[in-house]
Amino acid sequence: DDKLLSEPLSHPDFFNVKELFTLKDLFDARVHLGHKKGCRHRFMEPYIFGCRLDQDIIDLEQTMQHLQLALNFTAHIAYRKGIILFISRKRQFCHLVERTAQACGEYAHTRYWQGGLLTNAHIQFGAGVRLPDLIVFLSSLNNVFQPHVAIRDAAKMNIPTVGVVDTNCNPSLITYPIPGNDDSPSAVELYCKLFRMTIIRAKDKRRQSEAVEELR
Amino acid sequence: QMLRLIYTTTAVQRKNVGASGPAKYTEAFIKKQIEEFNLGKRHLANMMGEDPETFTQEDIDRAIAYLFPSGLFDKQARPMMKHPSEIFPEQRKIQWGEDGRPFHFLFYTGKQSYYSLMHETYEKLLNVEKYQDHLIAQDLPLQKEKRNLAGSRWLTKIELEEMLLEKLSDDDYSRFVQLLQKLSDLPCSDIEEKYIQKFSKEVPVQMEKVVIEPLQYDERGVAFSTSEGRRKTARATAVVYDNGTGKMTVNGIDILHYFPVLQDREQLLFPFQFLGRIGKHDTVCTVSGGGRSAQAGAIRLACAKALRSFVTGKEVEFMRQAGLLTVDPRVKERKKPGQEGARRKFTWKKR
């Protein structure tokens, strides 16, 4: 059992998430397109490649690295049977995100966030609730263009976060930020596909390893 | 060993009952209640001398009402013996498994049934839109069978709460109804008809069509018609005969003797005078209850209703507009405590 858990940690890319996406895929899905220069957040400046006709372009080389780290991390969490919660407050993609979560066998929250869901969980849900072990933000802003409350709450409850940060978002409290577009349907579909594939891959790997252990 | 009484303060004995929240019924508790109920049912059947196998809930209710007669007005306060599933409200069971993972994928939203319902409904909507696009791409016409909108209504908020076992807010409910409305308004929504019907209910026909009785004929061949009327506490039945001379009898007594006051007789004659049929009909009435005016008003209504069978539809409408066919709803208002009568207050004394 110890070996099951410690073996993946020795490899830098145990689940081989690099092969799931290429730079061209990201470009075709319009992940590099950011918001206008006026909406730019100060902390996103390191991740921006440049600005063309007032529109910010996100550096896809950096996005590739961040995406690889984030997907690797989610795969490890899924391998260790953690609870993953997908959050997105974009109305267009609410249904898509819920479907993705259902397909992975994980959880989603694309609706109005009630104040004490993470911080007051024992009273809201009942004693003995298990909180999510990872929170994935497919859009880190809420409907009023302010940082989603769950970022701060997850940081308070020591829950690691993975989040797609656009040029108008604050990447500070997110543990594994992924600079990229969160408004185009093609980009969000790509992210959903990538997360779904990593989680399913990690779970399959876990089942295989357990079967192998049992055979011994 | 003697047990000595230790004196404690009342503060220790007082328990904060409200702090534990609404009572939680475990599954084992409910099962035990169901077993006890079944045993009790059989005992009751034996007591009443009936067959324990075929003892229905109605028999139980009758037996309990016989064994424990109660004069309380509130039906819910009387002793009752019902199946535990009707007494203990349905509750949500524990939502997560042994390893802690919740069962439902929307568990962390807080309102999982409601949001999963919204999710499903939206999925149906997308399905219908996809089907519509499919038809448009093939240039096929979009059919629309007229759904009977007047005969059905959506579930109320309380019914939806019962269905989902979850509290809803008014906004949530209105949003759900809007989504359902949007789904049913699409042209090709017939595909998801079954799903929509889960949330719609038949509305019973509200307007009772007032049926005007046809004329009956007695042995002499004379047409007559019977009807009832009421006013305050008086109840009257009137039989109006055709080809008459305008004679009216009440409880076997002629109206001149029964109603000495002119006002009452005017009331009786009003329906006939309105239709211009004063000397044409004979009337035999019976009346009981009420006082002088109330009986007169009751007979008037009864005669007017009986005359509907003799008269055209237009004249019936005229009668209705004249107020001849409406039951007078005024009854004696009750006296309230702290007041002399229904409205009169006690004499106000300045000091």
TrEMBL record, chain A:
Pfam families, A to Z: Ribosomal_S2
Keyword Kinase: no
The entry's keywords: Mitochondrion, Ribonucleoprotein, Ribosomal protein
InterPro entries associated with the record: Ribosomal_uS2, Ribosomal_uS2_bac/mit/plastid, Ribosomal_uS2_CS, Ribosomal_uS2_flav_dom_sf
Compartment annotation: Mitochondrion
Keyword Ribonucleoprotein among record annotations: yes
A GO MF label: structural constituent of ribosome
Any GO BP annotation: translation
GO cellular component, one term: mitochondrial inner membrane
Family of this protein: Belongs to the universal ribosomal protein uS2 family.
Name of the protein this chain belongs to: Small ribosomal subunit protein uS2m
Protein species of origin: Pachyramphus minor
From TrEMBL, chain B:
GO MF term list: RNA binding; structural constituent of ribosome
Ranges in coiled-coil conformation: none
Entries under Pfam families matching the protein: Ribosomal_S9 (PF00380)
Disordered, as annotated region: 332-351
Entry annotated with the keyword Repeat: no
Alphabetical UniProt keywords: Mitochondrion, Ribonucleoprotein, Ribosomal protein, Transit peptide
Subcellular location: Mitochondrion
Statement: the UniProt record of this protein carries the keyword Signal: no
GO BP: translation
Gene Ontology CC: one annotated term: mitochondrial small ribosomal subunit
PROSITE patterns listed in its UniProt record: RIBOSOMAL_S9
Family the UniProt entry places it in: Belongs to the universal ribosomal protein uS9 family.
Protein name per the record: Small ribosomal subunit protein uS9m
